[in-house]
Design goal:
The strands form four sheets. The protein has an eight-stranded parallel beta barrel, surrounded by eight helices. Helix 2 packs parallel to helix 3 and helix 7 packs parallel to helix 8. It is of the alpha/beta class. It has three domains: 272 residues, Aldolase class I (TIM Barrel, Alpha-Beta Barrel), CATH 3.20.20; 88 residues, no CATH class; 117 residues, Alpha-isopropylmalate synthase LeuA, regulatory domain (Double Stranded RNA Binding Domain, 2-Layer Sandwich). Helix content is 41%, strand content 20%. The longest helix is centred in the last third of the chain and has 23 residues. The radius of gyration is 33 Å and the shape is elongated. The structure holds acetyl coenzyme *A, 3-methyl-2-oxobutanoic acid (KIV) and magnesium ion (MG). 3-methyl-2-oxobutanoic acid (KIV) binds next to strand 5 and strand 6.
C-alpha cells in the first residue's frame, strides 16, 4: 500500500456550500491558484451543473490551473455528468466525481429509491463518467449510516463499473474514529475488487470529529482524504486541510505517511480564504489561529526560550508563520521580560530589572495587551527617578459646574511625608498645584502634551511637560494608561530633575 495520502481539496465545492462562503468566479480562480501552489493533489472546483457561474468556475480552473487534478461533482444523472465532462474539457488532469446516497434514510425519504435502483443509478453514473474520463470517483453519500453489507455491494458495483476512487463520506458527521476504522476495514475485507480502487474519506465536523475520523480511515487503509482549508463546508464544516496535513507530517513517526502539500503555504492560503469569505479564524484554531504559536504564560515562555520543543510540536515556519510569539502579559515571568528588553536593544544587565518587572506586572494587571512600546516606556521611564516619590494620588473631576480637585501623598528626599490637596481648572491642573504645595516648589508650566504611544483602547499615554524654575528650562516625561497619571508622572519628573540639579549645585 502506498505511503502517500492524496489530498483532495474541496474548499471550492463543499467549502463553498457553507453559508457565507460563496465566492465569485474571480475569487475561485484566485483560490484555485493558491491551492495549486499549496500542492494539493486534487482540486474539486465545483458542481458544474449547479449554475452557469459554477460551470464557468470549473471550466476556467480546468483551463488555468496546472499541476493538480481538477475535479467536478455530479449526481448520478446524465445532465450533471455531461456538464461536468464539458466543464473539464481543457484540464490537463481531470476527474469526474459522481455520488448517490446509500443510507436507508436517504433512499427512502429523499431519493425514494430501492436498494437496487440506487445500485443501478450508481453503475450507470460511473459508466457514463468513465466514457468521458479515466479518473472517476464514486461517493456513497451518507455511507456511515448505511447497512455495511449493502455498502460493500454498492462499492463493489461501482468499482466494477470503472470507479478508480471510492469515497466513504461521513456526510452528517455522525461516526466515531473506531467506527470509521471498522467501516474501512470491513470494506477492505468484504469488497472483492477493493484493491482496484483508492479508498477515500470525506468527513464532516458536526461532532468535532472530522479530523479524528479521517485519520482513523487513513489508519485503516484510506489513501485519499477530502478536506477544506480552514475546515469550511456544510454546517460545521469539513475535515480541515491544515489539521490533517500537519497531523500526518508531525506524527510521521506514528502514521509512517506523507502528503505532497507544501506546508509553508498553509498560512498564506488560509489567510487568502479568510479574506475572500470574510470569515475570521478563531484565535485558538489549531495550526492557523493567532494563538497557535503564541505563548503568554511565564513558565511556558521560559521553556520556549530554553528549547522551542518544550511547548511546540511544530515550528511556526513549517506552516508559513514568521515565528513563535511570546506575548507579554499578566502571566509572564522575568525570563520573557528580560528577553524582550534585550530584543528592544537595551542592555538588560545594566537595567534595574526588578523595578521594571514590578512596573510591568502592575501595568499588565491594568492593560490587556502589552506592546513593545509599553516595555520601552517602562525601561526608559524608570531612569533617573527620585528623590521625590509620589506614593498616592486621587483626583475628582466632572462636567458642568463640577470642581476638579486632587489630593497627593508624596514622600520627600529625607523620607518625610507630605499630604496636600488643591482644586484646579481640571484634574491635571489640580494635581500639579497639589504637588507644588507638597514639594514647596513653584513651577512655571510652559507646555503639556499627551500622546498615545501604544495601540488599542488600553494604550499607554506619554505626557511631556515643559517648565521653568529659577530661570532654567526643564523637561519631564511620564507614561501610564491613565492620561492624568501620565501627566502627573511627567510633572514629578520635572520636580525631580530640579531637585537633583539643586542637590548637585549645593
Ligand atoms: C452531500 C453533498 O454535499 S451533495 C452536493 C450538494 N450540493 C448542492 O446541492 C449544490 C448544487 N445544487 C444545485 O444547484 C441544485 O440542487 C441542482 C441544480 C443540482 C438541482 O436542482 P433541482 O433540480 O432544482 O433539484 P433539488 O436540488 O431541489 O433536488 C435534488 C434532486 O436531485 C435528486 N438527487 C439528489 N442526489 C442525487 C444523486 N446523487 N443522484 C441523482 N439524483 C439525486 C433528488 O432526489 C432531487 O430529485 P427530484 O428533483 O427528482 O425530486
Ligand atoms: C458529495 C459528497 C462527497 C459529500 O459532500 C458528502 O457526502 O458530504
Ligand atoms: Mg460533504
Amino acid at each position: 500500500m502506498s505511503d502517500k495520502v492524496i489530498i483532495f481539496d474541496t474548499t471550492l465545492r463543499d467549502g463553498e456550500q457553507s453559508p457565507g462562503c460563496a465566492m465569485t468566479l474571480a475569487q475561485k480562480r484566485r483560490m484555485a491558484k493558491s491551492l495549486g501552489a499549496l500542492g494539493v493533489d486534487v482540486i474539486e472546483a465545483g458542481f458544474a451543473a449547479a449554475s452557469p457561474d459554477d460551470f464557468n468556475a470549473v471550466a476556467s480552473i480546468a483551463r488555468e490551473v496546472k499541476g493538480p487534478t481538477i475535479c467536478a461533482l455530479a449526481r448520478c444523472n446524465d445532465n450533471d455528468i455531461r456538464e461536468a465532462a464539458r466543464a473539464l474539457e481543457e484540464a490537463e488532469k481531470k476527474r469526474i466525481h459522481v455520488f448517490i446516497a446509500t443510507s436507508p434514510l436517504h433512499r427512502e425519504h429523499k431519493l425514494k429509491m430501492t436498494k437496487e435502483q440506487v445500485i443501478e443509478r450508481a453503475i450507470n453514473g460511473v459508466k457514463l463518467a468513465k466514457s468521458f474520463v479515466d479518473d472517476v470517483e464514486f461517493s456513497c453519500e451518507d455511507a456511515t449510516r448505511t447497512e455495511k453489507d449493502y455498502l460493500a455491494q454498492v462499492v463493489e458495483a461501482a468499482i466494477e463499473a470503472g470507479a478508480t476512487t471510492i469515497n466513504i463520506p461521513d456526510t452528517v458527521g455522525y461516526t466515531t474514529p473506531t467506527e470509521m476504522f471498522e467501516t474501512i476495514d470491513f470494506l477492505k475485507k468484504h469488497v472483492g475488487n477493493i484493491e482496484q480502487a483508492i479508498i477515500s474519506t470525506h468527513c464532516h465536523d458536526d461532532l468535532g470529529l472530522a479530523v479524528a475520523n479521517s485519520l482513523a480511515a487513513v489508519e485503516a487503509g484510506a489513501r485519499q482524504v477530502e478536506c477544506t482549508l480552514n475546515g469550511i463546508g456544510e454546517r460545521a464544516g469539513n475535515c480541515a486541510l491544515e489539521e490533517i496535513v500537519m497531523a500526518i507530517k508531525t506524527r510521521a513517526n506514528h502514521y509512517g505517511l506523507d502528503t505532497g502539500v507544501r506546508t509553508e503555504q498553509i498560512l498564506p492560503s488560509s489567510r487568502l480564504l479568510s479574506a475572500i469569505t470574510g470569515s475570521v479564524v478563531p484565535r485558538n484554531k489549531a495550526i492557523i489561529g493567532d494563538n497557535a504559536f503564541a505563548h503568554a504564560s511565564g513558565i511556558h515562555q521560559h521553556g520556549m526560550l530554553s528549547h522551542p520543543e518544550t511547548y511546540e510540536i511544530m515550528r511556526p515556519q513549517s506552516i508559513g508563520r514568521v515565528d513563535t510569539s511570546l506575548v507579554l502579559g499578566k502571566h509572564s515571568g522575568r525570563h520573557a521580560l528580560v528577553d524582550k528588553v534585550k530584543e528592544l536593544g537595551f542592555d538588560a544587565a545594566s537595567e534595574d530589572i526588578d523595578r521594571i518587572f514590578a512596573d510591568f506586572k502592575n501595568l499588565a494587571d491594568r492593560k490587556k495587551h502589552i506592546t513593545d512600546a509599553d516595555i520601552e516606556a517602562l525601561v526608559v521611564g524608570q531612569a533617573n527617578t527620585g528623590p521625590w516619590q509620589l506614593a498616592q494620588m486621587q483626583v475628582t473631576s466632572g462636567t458642568g459646574d463640577a470642581i476638579a480637585s486632587a489630593a497627593v501623598f508624596i514622600i520627600g528626599p529625607d523620607g518625610s511625608e507630605h499630604r496636600e490637596a488643591a482644586t484646579g481648572d481640571g484634574p491635571v491642573d489640580a494635581a500639579f498645584r497639589a504637588i507644588e504645595r507638597a514639594t514647596g516648589m513653584e513651577i512655571h508650566l510652559e507646555g503639556l502634551s499627551v500622546n498615545s504611544i501604544s495601540e488599542g483602547i488600553d494604550a499607554q499615554g506619554e505626557a511631556q511637560v515643559r517648565a521653568r524654575f529659577a530661570g532654567q528650562s526643564f523637561h519631564g516625561r511620564g507614561t501610564s494608561t491613565d492620561i492624568v497619571a501620565a501627566s502627573v508622572s511627567a510633572f514629578m519628573d520635572v520636580i525631580n530633575r530640579i531637585s537633583r540639579q539643586m542637590a548637585k549645585a549645593s
